[in-house]
Amino acid sequence: MTGNSRPLAVFDLDNTLSGTAHRQHFLERRPRDWAGFFAAAPEDPPLEQGVALCREAAEECEIVYLTGRPERCRKDTVAWLAAQELPEGRIHMRRDTDRRPARLTKLEILRRLGRDREVRMLVDDDELVCEAAERAGFRVVRARWADPSTELKDAQEREGRT
């Protein structure tokens, strides 16, 4: 089987592979401190269930990372993934100026990925992203192993920030 024919396993980052609880306080202020929120991302602890699922999926699938983090966070994101010894994979990030809801931006990328390859699963913690992906015919694994954050959910949907 060639690398191009392997199915894809698509993983979100925040609250799927990485724990963001330690940086939620940046979103609780008004105005929200997005620079502080993303600057603290390199200190995220890995979420064991998500990391284990990603490594297991890599046995049969090519791993793709799909995050709402802005492109300006790429260097820190690449370093964090490497530090956790997660499988290498393409990283799809939000353009720095894109403020659309994650359920729209992520579904757009999933559809693009699915044109040429089987998307075996999407693993994400955002319920609206999961529902949109399921409606579009994708298999979804809901990442329910992190403490949910009302502020993060609101930011994902209303502000298109992560």
In round numbers, the mean pLDDT is 91
CATH superfamily: HAD superfamily/HAD-like
Give the N-to-C terminal Cα separation. Answer: 35 Å
Strands, count = 5
**Biggest sheet layout:** 5 strands, parallel
Secondary-structure element pattern, one letter each: EHHHEHEHEHEH
Give the uncertain stretches in residue-range form.
none
CATH architecture: 3-Layer(aba) Sandwich
- What is the CATH topology assignment? Rossmann fold
Task: Write down the overall geometry.
Answer: globular
Strand content: 15-25%
Please identify the oligomeric state.
single chain
How many helices? 7
Taking all Cα atoms into account, the compactness measure Rg is 15 Å
What's the CATH class label?
Alpha Beta
Spatial arrangement of strands, main beta sheet: 3-2-1-4-5
What structural category characterises the helix and strand content? alpha/beta
Helix fraction bin: 25-40%
Number of domains: 1
Write out key terms for the chains shown:
single chain, 162 residues, alpha/beta, Rossmann fold, 7 helices, 5 strands
Commentary on this structure:
The protein has helices spanning 25-28, 34-39, 48-57, 74-83, 102-116, 127-135, 150-159; strands at 8-11, 62-70, 90-94, 119-124, 140-142. The chain has 162 residues and is of the alpha/beta class. It has one domain (8-159): Rossmann fold (3-Layer(aba) Sandwich). It has a five-stranded parallel beta sheet with strand order 3-2-1-4-5, sandwiched between helices. The protein is globular, with a radius of gyration of 15 Å. 36% of the residues are buried.
Write a short abstract of this structure:
40% of the residues lie in helices and 17% in strands. It has 162 residues and is of the alpha/beta class. Helix 4 links the parallel strand 2 and strand 3.
